[in-house]
Write a structure and sequence with these properties.
alpha/beta, GMP Synthetase, Chain A, domain 3, 12-stranded mixed sheet, 4-stranded mixed sheet, 13 helices, 21 strands, 34% helix
Length: 428
């Protein structure tokens, strides 16, 4: 399904203007158009007619109501069938009635479907050109490393922008020569694959050609960002995007902004300091699959400072991870929660010899730790330091009698890498 370049240019200019207005308010015209869209959704039309407040949705509820929420008559069963076959065949071009079907990675164990119309593709491409890649009349090549392709991404292709998909199911050693030959200007991928690419350039003593490097899909942690910016010799931009839409981008000043000129973000604060929150999203531009008061379980950190770029949209100081991965412990009759950031800090504080790590809560009294260290002969010593730091941090919370267990470091590049994972049953 080809997207009109004129439509892309129209939305690029429209979104550029809305960003340059330096306002994060949704226009009344956009809200009026959004209500017309909701009247095409039997789920929301019924609520509008009854003047019933819109409920907060999560992924399970959203998928349960998939058939009556979407406005294009796509059935969930058909959408899953097309999406799963596309993944199996590695052919991501099939559509249903001209609607592109995407399948989320299912990090939280519940895979979701997202629908994209031709108009929504044009809006997405316009937004990406404005806020991430930047418009240029010079021909630029993009290398995109993803678990699955989608013809949404192919819509970026034009006479000034050439898109090349690299399938994460194919090991990097078989793709690196192609990447070298492509000599791309822009590299896009999840932090774990960006790091693997960076280290391969470093090991072969080659200078990476990329002028722009964009991190997607995974949490970009501070140590990864420093390593990547050092090897690639450029600022690492972030795109915060998920099944529910394009949510945030890194501005020229290096700040991560929410796209609040078309997204209304309610903040469900998770701490007394009002720093961590879950975003509850209403997207005023989505039409085929309305996103209304959709709560993500991502843990976002709000930065209350002003940005020199002039945007008044909320700044995120970091994306900490998912609430699913918060460690919870029962101490007497109280549930103590330990956020991923505290786990990360303890690990990195333990030793400068740690190159990478993964930590998982595997039982109510067991934490598994896997490490990659600079010098293999120091592994036991480093592990002992990590064990002491973790136990000391937990004891400060009153959490005792926890076993820290060694495990092998493994990562499947076709899945999102989560350094901190809660694999223990949520019923404590």
């Amino acid at each position: 399904m080809k997207v009109s370049k004129l439509a892309i240019l129209y939305y690029f200019l429209k979104l550029r203007f809305s960003r340059l207005r330096r306002s994060s308010r949704i226009s009344s015209k956009m809200k009026k158009s959004w209500k017309k869209t909701l009247n095409k959704s039997s789920f929301y039309a019924d609520l509008l007619q009854k003047e019933t407040p819109f409920p907060i949705m999560d992924k399970t509820q959203f998928m349960n109501h998939f058939d009556v929420i979407n406005t294009v008559g796509v059935k969930k069963e058909d959408a899953f069938r097309v999406a799963l076959k596309s993944e199996e065949d590695r052919d991501f071009s099939p559509t249903i009635n001209g609607i592109s079907i995407g399948l989320s990675s299912g990090t939280s164990g519940n895979r979701g479907i997202f629908l994209t119309s031709k108009k929504e593709k044009a809006i997405w491409v316009g937004a990406v050109l404005d806020r991430v890649i930047g418009f240029s009349f010079r021909k630029r090549k993009v290398a995109f490393f993803l678990r699955a392709n989608n013809n949404l991404y192919e819509a970026v292709n034009s006479h000034v922008l050439s898109f090349s998909f690299f399938d994460l199911k194919i090991p990097l050693e078989y793709q690196f020569e192609r990447l070298k030959q492509l000599n791309a200007d822009i590299l896009v991928g999840q932090p774990s694959i960006l790091l693997a690419i960076a280290k391969r350039y470093q090991a072969k003593e080659l200078t990476p050609p990329f002028q722009t490097v964009i991190s997607v899909a995974e949490v970009l942690e501070e140590d990864y960002e420093k390593t990547l910016s050092s090897i690639f010799n450029c600022q690492i931009k972030q795109v915060y995007q998920c099944t529910e839409g394009f949510l945030a981008y890194t501005c020229k000043a290096g700040k991560l902004h929410l796209n609040e000129d078309w997204l209304e973000i309610e903040k469900k604060y998770l701490d007394a300091e009002h720093t961590r929150f879950h975003p509850i999203i209403t997207d005023y531009l989505r039409e085929s699959q309305p996103i209304v008061r959709y709560e993500l379980n991502d843990i976002l950190h709000e930065d209350h400072s002003a940005c020199t770029c002039g945007s008044q949209s909320t700044i995120l100081s970091k994306i900490e991870g998912r609430s699913d991965d918060v460690f919870s412990f029962k101490v007497q009759d109280e549930i103590i929660t330990v956020y991923p950031d505290f786990i990360r800090r303890s690990i990195l504080k333990a030793s400068p010899d740690i190159l990478d790590y993964a930590v998982s809560l595997s039982a109510k009294d067991e934490i598994k730790v896997s490490l990659i260290v600079k010098h293999l002969e120091k592994y036991e010593q480093v592990f002992q330091l990590v064990q002491e730091e973790l136990l000391g941090m937990l004891e400060a919370y009153g959490i005792e009698n926890i076993h820290i267990v060694k495990t092998n470091y493994t990562h499947d590049p076709t899945t999102k890498f989560r350094r901190v994972r809660n694999e223990y049953s949520k019923s404590i």
